[in-house]
Specification:
By secondary structure, the chain is of the alpha/beta class. It has one domain (5-56, 114-260). Helix content is 35%, strand content 25%. The chain has helices at 5-29, 39-54, 119-136, 176-186, 239-256, 264-268; strands spanning 62-70, 80-86, 101-103, 107-113, 116-117, 144-145, 161-166, 168-169, 197-200, 204-210, 214-216, 220-223, 226-229, 231-235, 260-261. Strands 1, 2, 3, 4, 7, 9, 10, 11 and 14 form a nine-stranded mixed beta sheet that branches. The protein has a two-stranded parallel sheet with strand order 5-8. A hairpin with a 3-residue loop joins strand 9 and strand 10 (204-210). Helix 1 (5-29) packs antiparallel against helix 2. The longest helix is centred in the N-terminal third of the chain and has 25 residues, at 5-29.
């Protein structure tokens, strides 16, 4: 009998998350002809379910929301399904319609929530996510580390943690990590802006392997001014293992990030 209480709790919550995300959402928002009667609410339902699941393994100072990312260069992202941000150091900036805008300095993570994806749809979604990650990288020049810490956005552990969660990846996924890596190369996406983790609820998880780190979420490692490229890895059709890596690497990556005090004045100039 397995006496690992943390493992039991995670497995229970993960199976409940999968059930609500994959089955309950369909029952609630689709009719007998497999047509949704409210696409926006269906998407929002899945985003909220995902946010609730994430709360189980993000650090306490990290809050979860949705909205837009704006950089000090005045670049604005498309609307993000999931934004992880420092709730203690982020100013509340919203317009009259309650759309929230998050300064890039304060971003800890960015997530996309999808349904069933072909491999082509997955690749295109990851290119879009990479472009949002580029905006999150544009922090204010005078950003300072919180509580005396040193802050350097170039360090790989300080890059925004980008992830995608979907219900299913259709087709043969036996070589999916390499296929996605090649697609990034075709679109000239630098390694540091590539996804950190992909989780498909059919039991597939995409991440990396790096020297001195082992399995990790870092597409590249910044070491002594040199970028070391990680090797793409994935788990295929094993839900329990995929969830374990997602929970472990999400918590570890977010916990490694240094906190930052933004220079608000630079955004207002």
């Amino acid at each position: 009998m397995d006496n690992n209480i943390l493992k039991k709790i995670l497995n229970h919550k993960a199976k409940r998350f999968k059930g609500v995300f994959s089955e309950d959402s369909i029952d609630l928002y689709f009719d007998s002809r497999s047509k949704t009667f409210h696409a926006a609410e269906f998407g929002r339902f899945r985003e909220n379910v995902t946010a609730d699941f994430l709360k189980g393994f993000v650090p306490g100072y990290v809050a979860i929301s949705t909205g837009f990312i704006v950089s000090q260069k005045n670049n604005i992202s498309t609307q993000c399904d999931i934004i992880l941000y420092d709730k203690e150091l982020t100013p509340l900036i919203q317009d009259d319609n309650h759309n929230q805008f998050f300064p890039s300095d304060c971003i800890k993570g960015i997530g996309e929530v999808k349904s069933n994806l072909t491999k082509k749809e997955l690749k295109d979604a990851l290119i879009k996510l990479a472009k949002v990650k580029m905006i999150s990288f544009e922090v204010s020049a005078d950003a300072a580390g919180y509580n005396g810490q040193t802050y350097d956005r170039e360090q790989h552990w300080n890059h925004a943690y980008t992830f995608l969660i979907c219900n299913e990846i259709k087709g043969d996924t036996s070589n999916i990590s390499s296929e996605i890596d090649d697609y990034y190369d075709t679109h000239h996406i630098p390694h540091k802006f590539r996804h950190n983790l992909v989780l498909s609820l059919d039991g597939t998880a995409l991440f990396y392997k790096a020297e001195h780190y082992g399995y990790c979420s870092f597409p590249s490692i910044h070491s002594e001014g040199v970028e070391i490229i990680s090797t793409p890895e994935h788990v295929e059709r094993n839900f329990d293992t995929a969830i374990k890596y997602f929970a472990k690497l999400t918590y570890t990556t977010l916990s490694m990030q240094n906190r930052v005090v933004m220079n608000l004045g630079e955004y207002l100039n």
